[in-house]
Design goal:
Bound molecules: flavin mononucleotide
Number of strands: 12
Radius of gyration: 19 Å
Shape: globular
Strand content: 5-15%
Largest sheet: 8 strands, parallel, barrel
Number of helices: 16
Number of domains: 1
Length: 351
């Protein structure tokens, strides 16, 4: 059952088409700089994440594992992460906790990427023992705890009990030996949710916004049901909601529907220290090859350099100071939520 689900997630996710603008980033504009006063080789995209160096603040987000057939995908994702110096998360390790013979489909990532940042992944309702086993399985630098109520509710076999999750996150964050990253899976987060998660001590939150892979539609397709409505908060809005909390010790990861370097640059410029992408990497690998994935990632990183130069930003820190305009539905949303005037008007340099 779980294997079929994992394979169907890959199959149905690859059939989905990205809807241009659905992630909200078209409402964010970065202002071109005609005098960047920088040379190409000066651009420095390096950053630290969980105490290790990344060549660029990018995460290959959680996708798969849990069967022999999936070893190749996780192995290739780990190899490309090691070659390019980006972080990598595995898919939910629940399957390997239930059937230990599938553990290698996860631990292969550590074998292929011994030095890099590798994240374990489980549902946020897991026990401390399960969390420790998942971390140990891949010698993880951190544990992603996913929140996915809309996905579970769209699944015939899905969970229906969501009480006590925040308390469980609190316990895991307090008792685990590695940092916890709480993530959504494409439905986004509002600032109230982010505040509550941060309030129990979590320092890393991946907003996992809407506009990309749509797990409600995937689960409905698996049941043979037609999708009638969509759900979630676009990634740009989710990120801005969280950033408006201005919590110094909170690291917000922007992900969900990120499809090119410009969206990555916008998220970094807004103030997110890390950006995640999932389906695009899977698509290039499954429908193409490992070499194509390598080229795809190298091109993405080169585009990040290009955009930084065009903005006159030598480092990621400089990027956070470039003029940024928020307009359209995102501006309207932030105004209606009472967020814009407090926070973003200042960021745009209006006050
Ligand atoms: C095939 C597939 C499987 C996924 N499985 C998981 C998972 O096991 N755990 C999880 O936290 N997220 C999972 N995700 C969600 C991604 O990590 C990410 O949050 C979501 O796809 C939105 O990003 P994207 O639009 O860049 O794909 C999966 C995504 C895909 C495409």
């Amino acid at each position: 059952m779980r294997l079929n689900r994992k394979l169907e997630h890959i199959e149905f996710s690859l059939q989905q088409k990205s809807i241009e603008g659905a992630n909200g980033f078209n409402d964010i504009t970065l202002v071109h700089n005609s005098l960047p006063q920088l040379n190409w080789e000066e651009i420095d995209t390096r950053c630290k994440f969980l105490g290790k160096n990344l060549s660029v603040p990018l995460l290959i987000n959680a996708m798969t594992g849990g069967h022999k057939e999936l070893e190749g995908i996780n192995g290739d994702l780990a190899k490309v992460a090691a070659t390019t110096g980006v972080a990598l998360a595995v898919g939910s390790q629940r399957a390997a906790l239930e059937d230990t013979s599938t553990q290698y489909s996860f631990s292969v990532v550590r074998e292929m990427n011994p030095q890099g940042v590798v994240l374990a992944n489980l549902g946020a309702d897991c026990t401390l023992e399960e969390a420790r086993a998942a971390i140990k399985m891949i010698k993880a630098d951190g544990l992603q705890l996913h929140l996915n109520a809309p996905q579970e509710l769209a699944m015939a076999e899905g969970d229906r009990k969501f009480k006590g999750i925040l308390e469980n996150i609190h316990m895991l964050n307090r008792d685990l030996e590695v940092p916890v990253i709480v993530k959504e899976v494409g439905f986004g987060m509002c600032r109230e949710s982010i505040r509550r998660i941060a309030g129990v001590g979590v320092s890393y939150i991946d907003v996992g916004g809407s506009g990309g892979t749509n797990f409600m539609a995937i689960e409905e397709a698996r049941c043979g049901k037609e999708t009638e409505f969509s759900w979630g908060i676009p990634t740009a809005i989710s990120s801005l909601e969280g950033l408006s909390l201005e919590k110094k010790d909170l690291n917000l990861i922007a992900s969900g529907g990120i499809r090119h370097a410009l969206d990555i640059i916008k998220a970094l410029a807004m103030g997110c220290p890390l950006v995640g992408m999932a389906r695009p990497f899977l698509k290039v690998l499954v429908e193409g090859s490992y070499d194509q994935l390598n080229t795809y990632l190298a091109d993405l990183i080169s585009d990040i350099h290009r955009l930084m130069l065009m903005l006159g930003a030598r480092t990621i820190k400089d990027l956070q100071r470039v003029p940024l305009i928020i307009s359209g539905n995102t501006y309207h949303w932030l105004c209606r939520r009472g967020i814009y005037v407090d926070h973003y008007a200042r960021r745009e340099g209006i006050f």
